[in-house]
Specification:
The chain has about 110 residues and is mainly alpha-helical. α2 (about 20-35) packs across α3 and α2 packs across α4 (about 50-60). The relative contact order is 0.13. The chain has seven helices and no strands. The chain is globular, with a radius of gyration of 16 Å.
Length: about 110
């Protein structure tokens, strides 16, 4: 999503939002972080419950409006570790345990 498209999306959300402004503030912050870092990094930064709550507040599906990975994604330590360990979803779901030798892969 381009910056122009992102700004249009935010304007649409703000124009149509009714409710607690502090909830909108936090949800828009998550959306902004996701715009730059991607929805995968966002899923590490907030809990699954919060992730789903923000989607409901904004009436968007992060996976549909945000890239999975961006140029900024590699700045996230959790994302870099996940990339080195392999399957993103196994790490997110804690299905992949890190063996001692893999700890040395982390810069």
């Amino acid at each position: 999503m381009t910056d122009f498209e992102f700004n249009r999306l935010v304007k649409s959300i703000v124009d149509n939002y009714t409710g607690d402004g502090s909830k909108l503030l936090h949800a828009l912050g998550a959306l902004t972080l996701g715009h730059y870092y991607g929805w995968k990094v966002l899923s590490f930064v907030v809990s699954q419950t919060t992730y789903l709550k923000y989607q409901k507040i904004l009436d968007v599906d992060f996976k549909l409006v945000l890239e999975g990975e961006t140029a900024y994604s590699k700045r996230s330590f959790a994302f870099r570790v996940t990339k080195k360990l392999g399957n993103f979803w196994d790490v997110v779901r804690s299905s992949h345990s890190m063996v001692k030798e893999e700890k040395f892969l982390i810069d």
